[in-house]
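note to self: dont lose this again. the chain is below, predicted strucutre after it. 326 aa total, dont forget to put it in the shared folder this time
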Amino acid sequence: SSIQLPYSLYNTNADAAKTMVSTIIQSALVHVLDQTNTQLGQVRPVLCTSPGLDESTITTIFDDSLGADATISPTYIPEPVAAIWGAQQVQLLPDLLERHVVVVDVGAHVTSISLVQRNVVLQSLPLPKFGGETFVHEIIQLIVDKMPSLAHDAHALPRVYQAAQAAAAELNTQTRTTINIPYIGMNVKTKEPLHLTMEVSRSVVQQALQNHVQRVLVPNASHQLSPHLPPPTDLSRLWTSVLTCLLENSNVTPMQVSHLLVVGGGAKQAIVSDSLTSTWTLLTGNTHGLCIPQLGMRSELVALGAASLLPNYHYNAQHGLVRNEE
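---
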């Protein structure tokens, strides 16, 4: 069973984040147990989190969310490792990977670029202020540019956000879409209702995103960019600089990387796959090893990988898969 919960930890303080994560875990467990007619003791929780997140902190939050029912212990797996397992489950990647794999996980607000070998995350670089919500916010800005009064209308902004979300989803598979928001406001002079109808093209949103790269991403990503390359001017050059920095920090050459795997719900936009294809071709000279799943699969691979963990194994951040002692 699967559930998607509308929560975001972006710009949330630590205490509020812990409370929210506990709520997420409680909601997810209740839903899954009800849908599958399963008892809590029959569940093996596998928690997938960003690389480097302290395992003890996650375990504590999980135990707090269960309260007196905390009789089961979760297994922690870094998202890049789970993504690789998921890709192996659906035969997008070979089962035995001795060489390095780069996993680009485009989330809602943050993108993680990780280097994995033998089920261990060797290095990971977060790229904040870039994810699926970036596209939504750029569309919101286009709407506000057309009707500036919406920028300060607290009642209208939630509808604008919903319309921008829908438009971003449609632009995953279409080159243009129409945004239609009836009764979005009131003309203060004529007292007539205002309706918003506008057409948005994928190319316009992509150009806005390229501007976002220079305006926001590059100034805030000094530690994620290679000092040996010029400042990026577009998304493809940004990926190139970040991947180069990742490999330089790990003393790994591009020829030692066998695959690049793209996952995450935010990776559905065409500009993400197109720019990563250009970057991978530049670094390796071809597209061999580039693994970009179908749109729907990009947000599912982590869960598929987590579910594939065998019951007699657990995960260790330093050693990868470890067989349980008898």
